[in-house]
């Protein structure tokens, strides 16, 4: 008789290592927002993969970094807390970055070694973005360092974006998780509420629309969520908070063009997510120093 398996897997690594992309790849759909910019993930977001034989909860964590400030402390606490709740740790390393700058490995990856070791959990290492490394021999120092840091760990060169090498990594995860019954319905793909996923979708479009001009001191809060039973439409009103007055103009854009573009892109994706028509209104407000206000950070659910 086949036994069912259930486990939690923490995805840990520096900013922009590809943790969210890997989780989305495993799930076959988008749960966490993805951006080419670091520090996109601000909360510990979970994705649930269910099969007949197993259920895996992936904990996508904020990138490990050394930046100061209240918000950054919230992010780091969230990442470290994920380690305490997991059955398997998967460390994500950006091959493209460290193949060209191997000297950064000791600065950015070495600080992960002790906290990961303290968990006593099995460790896997995913060397991500190998498809972007044209000079393959330059991968050797990255692989050697990973083996030095975690000599007991199995190492997987992968491309989370393209899916290359991700199946063997997933097979190993399924092998390592313990036996146990499923904890969530098989059609549930995340433990985060829909409101949070909607706010994250808006924030992603904000990232993508502003690109190089991105004001990092931005957050999104859903102020109104109203379901109209007659029309079957969901009315959503959301506020984009920014910490600086000049950023407000950047977000709104000339004659409101940028905000309109953000809203249009977000609404399309939210409609697919909710499987119904959506009316989305976006507002931009300036809130000085919100990134250093613990009460406001908690209200936004940051670092959870």
Describe what you observe in this structure:
By secondary structure, the protein is α/β, with parallel strands linked by helices. It folds into two domains: 5-176, Rossmann fold, CATH 3.40.50; 194-294, GMP Synthetase, Chain A, domain 3 (2-Layer Sandwich). Helices cover 37% and strands 22% of the residues. A six-stranded mixed β-sheet has the order 2-3-1-4-5-6, with helices on both faces. Strands 7-8-9 form a three-stranded mixed β-sheet. A hairpin with a 4-residue loop joins strand 7 and strand 8. The longest helix is centred in the C-terminal third of the chain and has 18 residues, at 257-274. The radius of gyration is 20 Å and the shape is globular.
Summarize the structure.
This protein has 304 residues and is an alpha/beta fold.
**Stretches where pLDDT falls below 50 for ≥5 residues?**
35-43
Number of helices: 11
What string, H for helix and E for strand, traces the elements in order? EHEEHEHHHEHEHHEEHHEH
CATH architecture of the largest domain: 3-Layer(aba) Sandwich
Rounded Rg: 20 Å
For the sheet with most strands, the description reads: 6 strands, mixed
Summed up, the domain count is 2
Global structural class:
alpha/beta
Strand content: 15-25%
CATH superfamily of the largest domain: P-loop containing nucleotide triphosphate hydrolases
Strand order of the largest sheet: 2-3-1-4-5-6
Distance between the termini: 38 Å
Q: What's the overall average pLDDT, rounded?
A: 83
Shape: globular
CATH class of the largest domain: Alpha Beta
Secondary structure: number of strands: 9
Percent in helix: 25-40%
Q: Write down the CATH topology of the largest domain.
A: Rossmann fold
């Amino acid at each position: 008789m086949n036994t069912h398996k259930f486990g939690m897997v923490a995805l840990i690594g520096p900013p922009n290592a590809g943790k969210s992309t890997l989780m989305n790849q495993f799930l076959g759909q988008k749960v966490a927002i993805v951006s080419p910019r670091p520090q996109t993930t601000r909360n510990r977001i979970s994705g649930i993969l269910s099969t007949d034989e197993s259920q895996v909860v992936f904990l996508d964590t904020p990138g490990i970094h050394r930046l100061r400030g209240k918000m950054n402390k919230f992010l780091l606490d969230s990442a470290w807390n994920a380690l305490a709740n997991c059955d398997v740790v998967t460390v994500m390393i950006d091959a493209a970055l460290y193949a060209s700058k191997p000297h950064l490995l000791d600065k950015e990856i070495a600080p992960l070694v002790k906290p990961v070791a303290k968990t006593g959990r099995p460790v896997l290492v995913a060397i991500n973005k190998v498809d972007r490394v044209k000079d393959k021999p330059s991968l050797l120092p990255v692989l050697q360092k990973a083996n030095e840091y975690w000599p007991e760990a199995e190492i997987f060169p992968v491309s989370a974006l393209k899916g290359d090498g991700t199946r063997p990594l997933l097979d190993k995860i399924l092998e390592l998780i313990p036996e146990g019954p499923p904890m969530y319905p098989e059609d549930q793909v995340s433990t985060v509420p829909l409101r949070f996923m909607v706010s994250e979708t808006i924030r992603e479009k904000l990232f993508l629309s502003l690109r190089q001009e991105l004001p990092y001191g931005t957050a999104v809060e859903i102020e109104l969520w109203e379901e109209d039973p007659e029309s079957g439409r969901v009315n959503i009103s959301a506020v984009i908070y920014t910490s600086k007055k000049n950023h407000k103009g950047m977000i709104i854009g000339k004659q409101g063009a940028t905000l309109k573009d953000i809203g249009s892109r977000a609404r399309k994706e939210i409609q697919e997510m909710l499987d119904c028509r959506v009316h989305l209104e976006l507002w931009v407000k300036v809130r000085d120093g919100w990134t250093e206000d613990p009460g406001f950070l908690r209200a936004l659910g940051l670092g959870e």
